[in-house]
Amino acid sequence: MQGSMSDDKEKLFEEILLQELKVIREYVQDIPAIKADIIDLKADVNVLKTDVAVLKADVLVLKTDMKIVKSILADHGRQFKRTTARVSKLEAKV
Asked: How far apart are CA 72 and CA 78, in angstroms?
């Protein structure tokens, strides 16, 4: 009876090993497809890096433009105040 138990355990162990081997073989078969996906992802990431670099440069240009516009608006504001002050003085004289 002990011999049959040992045989049963051995068969069970063999069956488990065969199932594990099958899973490993299926995974190994998927490796080329996984590698291709990784290569595609790397290419996509490189494109995204380039796009982000372009966007960063555009943002810097826009920031510079905004500073120029703010400066122009401030100058116009000061000129407007001076002009309205002059107009008020002229109106007061009239």
From this structure: 10
Q: Residue 55 and residue 18: Cα distance in Å, rounded?
A: 54
Residue with tokens 């078969």: 29
Dmax (CA) of the chain:
128
pLDDT digits (tens, 9 = 90+) for 20-52: 999 999 999 999 999 999 999 999 999 999 999
pLDDT digits (tens, 9 = 90+) for 55-91: 999 999 999 999 999 999 999 999 999 999 999 988 8
Query: Per the structure block, which two tokens stand in for 18?
Result: 């065969």
DSSP codes, 3-68: HHHHHHHHHHHHHHHHHHHHHHHHHHHHHHHHHHHHHHHHHHHHHHHHHHHHHHHHHHHHHHHHHH
